[in-house]
Amino acid sequence: MNNNEFLTVKDISEIFGISTQAVYEWMKDNRLKFYQVTNTKRIRPEDLLQYLKDRGNSDYAMKEFKIDIDEFLEKKALKEKGSTIEYDHFSQRGEKNIVGSTKGKKYPIKGSLLDKAKE
After folding, report:
1. pTM given for the model
2. How many CB atoms lie within 10 A of CB 43?
3. Neighbouring C-beta atoms of residue 100, cutoff 10 Å
4. Cα end-to-end span (Å), the chain
5. How far is CA 38 from the centre of its chain?
6. What is the largest CA-CA distance in the chain?
7. How does pLDDT run along the chain (119 residues), one tens digit per residue?
8. Domain definitions of the chain by residue range
9. Residue 105: CB partners within 8 Å, gap ≥ 6?
């Protein structure tokens, strides 16, 4: 299992700027599919996206979520390889400066599960 193909609870927490407890709630009763690897829960990006889609997120929000997840995984892979390349070069949006979290990003995305949680 390649760690760069899976997300941890902490990864998801960083991507969406939510608590790890919120992610564990998503996994409760197998609502969000995960794999137990030793003492760590791993989530495939496809399973996370399916969960978010099933929760009623808009197409726009889903596109944004996929970009955020892909960028996070790419940065994680570069970091594990010890790369010194500036990650901003790889940003698919250009206007955001991603640092493995939502810093500088205006979350929640309109029409997203995170936006609806505030209502």
Report:
1. 0.70
2. 21
3. 14
4. 39
5. 21
6. 42
7. 455 689 999 999 999 999 999 999 999 988 999 999 899 999 999 999 999 999 999 999 999 999 999 999 988 888 877 755 555 455 445 444 333 334 444 455 555 656 555 44
8. 3-117
9. 17, 68, 96, 98
